[in-house]
Design a protein that fits this description.
Number of domains: 1
Number of strands: 4
Structural class: mainly alpha
Helix content: 40-55%
Length: about 190
């Protein structure tokens, strides 16, 4: 089975099985976080550097600014949003992005515009991959918000330390990925 076929089958299956959970979460957001949309939509850089609209459950207050780096304890994140983020439930709508072909289950997390522009030389090969819901860099930095919260300048730490390491990890994934390896990454993410 090809990676794309795997993504399509399991994204459709996931949406079919999880629709009651998606509905309950959407209702909770509408009730507990009124005055804003249930879904958060943001332009992200996808395969070949093309922009697509990422869809997640909203976890922050409406009009919370354009800061692209969120940290643990960020006051913009609502109590319900914290719970959704902790259990990665906020990312379930990304199954729609996987089904559409914007994303894959496994690959580099999609960046906001600006980061991909910084890729130089061989690092640009990372754009050959569809971005993923999870991946090896996601597993390594599963505590990213806490790590950033411990820094004096979280954005600078992200830009100078985390992001270059993620590029290195994602290039290694590009060079060595397999369907069996993807299934292992998905299992590690869920566990």
């Amino acid at each position: 089975m090809s990676k794309r076929m795997f993504d399509m089958v399991f994204a459709a299956l996931g949406l079919a099985v999880l629709w009651p959970v998606l509905l309950v979460v959407a209702l909770l957001i509408a009730v507990k976080m009124p005055g804003g949309p249930v879904l958060f939509r943001q332009k992200r850089v996808g395969r070949y550097g093309e922009l697509f609209t990422l869809v997640k459950f909203r976890t922050m207050q409406v009009n919370s600014g354009k800061n692209t780096v969120s940290v643990a304890g960020d006051r913009r994140i609502t109590p319900l949003g914290r719970l959704l983020r902790k259990h990665k439930i906020d990312e379930l709508p990304e199954l729609w992005n996987v089904l559409r072909g914007d994303m894959s289950f496994v690959g580099p997390r999609p960046d906001v515009p600006g980061y991909a522009d910084r890729l130089q030389g061989d690092d640009r090969r990372m754009l050959l991959l569809r971005p993923g819901i999870t991946g090896p860099a996601t597993l390594k930095y599963r505590n990213e918000e806490e790590l950033l919260a411990a820094q004096i300048d979280p954005k600078r730490y992200n830009d100078e330390i985390l992001w270059p390491d993620k590029v290195r990890i994602n290039l290694d994934y590009l060079n060595n990925h397999s369907l069996c390896g993807d299934i292992e990454i998905i299992i590690k993410t869920v566990i």
